[in-house]
Amino acid sequence: MRDFRISPSLLAADFARLGEEVSAVVAAGADWIHFDVMDNHYVPNLTFGAMVCQALKPYAGNALMDVHLMVEPVDDLIQQFSTAGADVITFHPEASRHIDRSLSLIQAAGKQAGLVLNPATPAYVLENVMDKLDLVLLMSVNPGFGGQSFIPNTLNKIKQVRAMLDEYEHQSGRRILLEVDGGVKVDNIGEIAAAGADIFVAGSAIFGQPDYAKVIAQMRQELTKI
Ligand SMILES: O=C(CO)[C@@H](O)[C@H](O)COP(=O)(O)O
User: Any idea which positions bind substrate (predicted)?
Assistant: First the structure.
């Protein structure tokens, strides 16, 4: 079985109790904590910044802080989140004038670096920066809001990008992880994994239920079938 990781999205957590929510979901078996940073510019919504990430870091224990920047421009916030305890930083290629430079900034800070592709963003943007990628995050909804439905055509995109990453791994010996975000539930995580995903972001599916451990266990149970 591949080494799957589950990354609950704090966008669906109780914002009045974020520290407790991070502790609870880590105790429930989360591998990563997905931190959605929205700026009301790149996306039409506003969430939290690097100070909140820094405040939550001690609650995450061994779980990685998985920071998804939905902001434009990105470079200043890459610096801020690097010092605020982010372990993984991803951004959208449309939001950076110099994608290679922004990825280099993340890697120079010793963090895992990734690009995020929206449902309609073509996969070829990955081609010339493969050597700078630790992961690729595929959006299976349009970014900006939680609780949306998984866009079915994303399954084809996952297979397409997985094939590109497998080809790169074959040539370089280095595996780039594939993360999927949006509308991930117990009842579709299996087909998302079968299409080629390694990391699963789930917001409403986890925080929308009273028993986080039960949902994460159900997701892992589905992943054992792959
Ligand atoms: O980045 C985003 C939305 O922009 C996602 O992380 C969502 O927050 C996932 O939420 P669910 O679809 O799982 O409720």
Answer: 9, 68, 144-147, 181-183, 203-204
